[in-house]
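TA notes, week 10

Several of you asked for a full example with nothing omitted. So below is the full record: structure tokens for the whole chain, then the designed sequence directly under it. When grading your own attempts, check the secondary structure regions first.
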């Protein structure tokens, strides 16, 4: 696993902090993300924010006769993508790829959760990736994941 060890030794590019505040009366979540780049970079970066729901019980096709028939009727699905909160490829960070060290980027999103979803199984996932117009995201440099009503930091 030398590749993993090499990656662990590479410098941290960005710190992220995310806070989710849930308003049950309106089924709304306020998502606040603070990102601080640690290095001067000329690449373009984007912040993408998604919502997933866990523990959905629904049929799942099965192609392994060793574990049952053609369909598993009470299959528990994990990390089901429910929606993209930001634009699908995220919001640009910095001005035309001019990332300055120590500069803090603040992003805020308001999202109304579908009333059919179980909010206690929902999580917000935010990630920053290096952007390339040809290949979209080419390198995810940092991420953070939180339940709907949680505060967390990732360094």
């Amino acid at each position: 696993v030398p590749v993993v060890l090499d990656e662990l030794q590479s410098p941290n590019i960005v710190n992220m902090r995310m806070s989710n505040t849930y308003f049950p009366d309106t089924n709304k979540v306020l998502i606040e993300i603070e990102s601080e780049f640690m290095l001067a970079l000329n690449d373009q970066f984007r912040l993408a924010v998604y919502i997933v729901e866990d523990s959905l019980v629904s049929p799942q096709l099965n192609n392994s006769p060793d574990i049952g028939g053609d369909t598993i009727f009470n299959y528990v699905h994990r990390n089901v993508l429910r929606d993209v909160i930001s634009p699908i490829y995220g919001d640009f960070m910095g001005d035309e790829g001019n990332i300055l060290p120590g500069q803090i980027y603040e992003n805020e999103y308001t999202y109304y959760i579908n009333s059919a979803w179980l909010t206690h199984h929902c999580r917000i996932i935010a990630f920053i990736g290096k952007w390339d117009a040809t290949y979209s995201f080419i390198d995810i440099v940092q991420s953070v994941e939180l339940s709907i009503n949680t505060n967390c930091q990732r360094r």
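The helical segments are 2-9. Use that as a sanity check on your answer.
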